[in-house]
User: Fold Leucine-rich repeat-containing protein 3 from Alligator sinensis.
Amino acid sequence: MFLTRLSSPFAQLLVTNVFFSLLLGVPLSVSCPQRCQCTDHSGAMAVLCSSRHLEEIPQDIPKDAVYLKLDANKITKIPNNAFKHLNHLEELDLSRNAIEKIDMAAFKGVADGLQMLDLSNNHIQSIPKEALVKLNAKIRLSNNPWHCECTLQEVLWEVKLDPESVNEITCQTSVREEYVGKPLVQILDSGVNFCNIRQKTTDIAMFITMFGWFTMVITYVVYYVRHNQEDARKHLEYLKSLPSTQVPKETISTIL
Assistant:
């Protein structure tokens, strides 16, 4: 009834926004990303963007967001500085997406306050160590098609993994075939060091390269000597074929 007394369409729209803001418990100053819902969760801003068919991270997430749920979307990449303005962020859920690539500075700006980061159930095969090492948050990396090698091992050494999901980090591919399908933590606990494996592989490659060069040099020397011997033999036979009066003995002795 109150709305019908307002003659201005702008005034009607303003009152409508006030009504829904009060209903949802959201301050009027908050601009919520399209297709997302912003609510007050125990006095903290929660931005809920779950299952909204998002293909990238929204640009207009409120800077006072404390909880951000982007799970169950179609996000494929976390670019640099994607969350740099979210200084109050404590929980970030990126699970059940199609994430394949995470840039080195993807989580720059949220390192200090972030308490939980969920990257489980994505398409991540590798991740730069620099993207996670400065985070104090518990991190979930389970159910991704990980390639187990030195870089991933270094990531696990540096970050704080969520203990409930640590055994679900398995090797879909690996530098060694026998580790495929096994939990990475179990492999590392058995004493395997992927960084040593990489060093040994590099050493073997260098040895093979050096051996190849050495073989080429030896082959060239042998060819050179044999070629000169053949030329010398032909020259000697030529000299012997000449009349003896024309071939000084000193020349033959020098050749021999």
Residues 31-192 form a domain with the Leucine-rich repeat, LRR (right-handed beta-alpha superhelix) fold (CATH 3.80.10.10).
